[in-house]
Amino acid sequence: MMLTTARQDIERRFAAARLAAAEPCDDTGQTELAMLDAVGSVMTLEREATLFYEGDAAGHYYKVVTGAVRSCRLLSDGRRHVGDFFLPGDLIGFHSLDTHGFTAEAVSNSTLVRYERRNVEALMTRSPRVGKCLLNRMCSELSEARSRMMMLGRMTAQERIANFLLRMADRNGHDDPDSIALPMTRTDFGDYLGLTTETVCRTLAQLKSAGVIAAPSPHQVRLLQRAALASIADGA
Questions:
Q1: CA 49 to CA 104: how far, in whole Å?
Q2: Facing residues of 40 across strands?
Q3: What is the residue range of 31's domain?
Q4: Who's near 10: CB < 8 A, 6+ residues apart?
């Protein structure tokens, strides 16, 4: 029922986006983003459902509107590696060539916009500003990916979790910047950060005991001492 209501709300917003796309371009970039939304369609995904599998043909691109999606791959020894978490506003699949290089799964009940690849490519041909906007987004995401590689290779467990919490705080778009919604499980944490579930739970408990964070629920964390958490993330 909640997904149905969310979908109806999103569809109303996208009807407005299609009208906005017909207006003359401005200098803010909002018209170009509305043009992208105007070629998309709304879809819903239940928790733990698969959006696409590694190796599937990349015929569509996606944007998360509500909920969260994770990218993951199975390693040769059977372990799972979570590559990233896609939150509202994040684009999925724009890096793909002919096939997807990872599997995408819903972390929670989610609403997405699905774009046919050929429609997006046609739009970029008509409006190079849309293509530039998408290119800038992809370059930013690649820069973040390099930072995550350094995090996994150089940082301790506590430093990794501190960095992750600060990154989520910057991404969640909440009115309260110190309140973080965490739809993922502790196992997702570990598979993303290269840690065991036990290490994730123990480290979070240590940060709670030190008064750096609070955890009102399993899917919510509140930063009590942001400066101290940043100091931990920097290895101080």
A1: 9
A2: 115
A3: 2-151
A4: 42, 65, 66, 111, 113
Residue matched to tokens 């070629």: 39
Q: How many domains does the chain have?
A: 2
In terms of average pLDDT, the best of 19-23, 92-96, 118-122 is 118-122
Q: List the single range of 29-43, 61-75, 94-108, 154-168 with lowest mean pLDDT.
A: 29-43
pLDDT at 6 over 60: no
Sequence-separated (6 or more) residues with CB below 8 Å from residue 14: 37, 38, 40, 42, 113
pTM, rounded to two decimals: 0.81
Transcribe 16-43 into DSSP letters.
HHHHHHTSPP-SSSHHHHHHHHHTEEEE
196-225: buried (b, 16+ CB within 10 Å) or exposed (e) per residue?
A: eeebbeebbeebeeeebbeeeeeeebebee
Predicted confidence (pLDDT) per residue in 32-53, tens digit: 667 788 889 999 999 999 999 9
Q: Clarify whether residues 144 and 160 are in a common domain.
A: no
